[in-house]
Amino acid sequence: MFFTRRAVALGAAALAATLSVVAPAMAQTPIKFTLDWKFEGPSAGFFLALDKGYFKDEGLDVTIDTGNGSVEAIPRVATGAYQMGFGDINSVIKYLDEDPSQKVKAVMMVYDKPVFALVGRKSLGITEDPKSVEGKTLGAPPPDGAFAQWAAFKEAADIDDSDITIESIGFPVREPMLAKGDVDAVFGFAFSVILNLKAQGTPDEDIATILFADNGLELYGNAVLVNEDFAEENPEAVKGFLKALAKGFADAVADPAEGAAAVLKVNETLDKDLETERLQMAIDMNIKTPYVEENGMGGVDMDKLAASIETLKTSMDLQGNVTADDVFDPQYLPPKEERMLP
């Protein structure tokens, strides 16, 4: 068969064009991501980034799994079982203090103000005064991020725990036990416990919320975590993930109902109105803080982080093995203008 030089050239060009189309799809970097908890309203930013193709636009093939508490997400990432995840930065500090060789670091702050809380019932003697828990029975899921800060909080709020009973309970029975009066208050993330308690039939006027951050505990909350080996080998993938996520959270803040709808696509058992309310609570209490409004989402004040480590040294028996730089690495964050929330 006879081919002209032009035909060969055209054929080569067509092949090159085909390869250029195929190459990006083949080059997509897979990232397994673990949340801290179930698929609920506050995870909207992650699912909007997935649903709208923001991760895909950055050359990433992202899968998102549920978690079982913001503490348990940490070893998932440190061991490399998940390349990235979402967990409590204070528990990361404790984790690294116990073993500085662990390969996990925070790279993007999401809950600029932590959601840690004790939520109780006024009819059981709990008020917004932290000292109202003295002499009470408190329900505590062992992997819960709020309970992990109990030692720090009781010191900061000057709580006498000599006659407090801590009852170990599972997440599934936390709100039902409080609704029935089996415990007087429970540890948890405020937006989760409050709305779950209301769903159990407890009236809003009977719910008392004690936010740790409003009662002397100056800490950060949940952050995006990365396995350090993965980050060193795939820096552009990590940067792309955070860029896409900043867009996702900006969309969630701009339209919480749209954010809740994105979560309902992966958890159809949810109530859209309830999850929209839960997301709005997270935005108002934890995500869109004055610091974030001025500096954009994702970064931290390294002096504040260092001060929080000092706080945890005395209240969580830290050995002093980590610094703020060991815990948080801002190098993968997109520019400030790309992290501003509407």
What's this entry about, in short?
The protein has helices at residues 5-27, 44-51, 54-57, 73-78, 89-98, 150-156, 171-180, 190-199, 228-233, 235-254, 256-264, 272-287, 290-295, 302-315, 324-327, and strands at 29-34, 60-65, 84-88, 104-109, 116-121, 137-140, 165-168, 185-189, 207-211, 222-227.
List keywords for this structure.
five-stranded mixed beta sheet, D-Maltodextrin-Binding Protein, domain 2, alpha/beta, globular, 15 helices, 342 residues, disordered N terminus, 2 domains
CATH class of the largest domain: Alpha Beta
Largest sheet: 5 strands, mixed
Mind telling me the C-alpha Rg?
23 Å
Corresponding CATH architecture of the largest domain? 3-Layer(aba) Sandwich
Widest beta sheet: strand line-up: 2-1-3-10-4
For the terminal residues, how far apart are their CA atoms?
64 Å
Order of helices and strands: HEHHEHEHEEEHEHEHEEHHHHHHH
* CATH 4th-level superfamily of the largest domain: Periplasmic binding protein-like II
Give the DSSP E fraction (strand runs of 2 or more residues). Answer: 15-25%
| SS element count, helices | 15
Task: Kindly report the average pLDDT value.
Answer: 91
How many domains would you count in the coordinates?
A: 2
The beta-strand count equals 10
CATH topology-level fold name of the largest domain = D-Maltodextrin-Binding Protein, domain 2
Spans with pLDDT under 50 lasting ≥5 residues?
1-25
Shape: globular
